[in-house]
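cron nightly-structures :: item 1 of 1
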Amino acid sequence: MATTRGVLLDVDGTLVDSNDAHARAWVEALAEQGLNVPFEKVRRLIGMGGDKLLPRVTGLTEDSAEGKRIAERRREIFLSRYVPSLRPTPGAPELVRHLRARGLRLAVASSAKKDELGALLRVCGAEGLIKGETSSDDADRSKPDPDIVHAALQEIGLPSGQAVMLGDTPYDVESAGRAEVRVIAFRCGGWGDEDLAGALAIYDAPADLLAHYDSSPLAGP
């Protein structure tokens, strides 16, 4: 196994307990436009970019007039109603600090919009600790396409074989795999082990990985 020199970090569900909040914001924004979509249907798609989620639940494209209204309203609802009460996933701030102290290059690889990303990084105490921050605004195609992962690799200047991605959804596992990046997955985003198949290892949350760091894939051969 190649030596790991960098870590790509998903944020929603991985470092911040925000997946349910994202789903609720989508449901509320859709309902305001007369589109009643069950929470459970949206929740299973959280981790994809909005450009993929919206067509799956409504048939609308994000660049249509109605799609733009819904996407903007979702953003407003998420930032105003939900971000103030969000919390880090267990151990997220400590894990980020530990990775940094180990000298690993860190980059965010998130499907979040750039203006949401700063708020989320403040929630998990990672603001200012991560060299590269790539969002859906930096990629033509969102997860599960590999574009965001490729952009994050460029940010830290490493080939795919020298990086590991931390994520919590099957879309993280797929996007990293398509970029030939190894993945460590967390259950704290709400997905089961069968959904996260393909990951090198699966832990309950960042705290679990930190507690077992020396025996984890991040510790090296």
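cron nightly-structures :: done
The beta strands are 6-9, 105-109, 132-134, 163-167, 182-186, 201-203.
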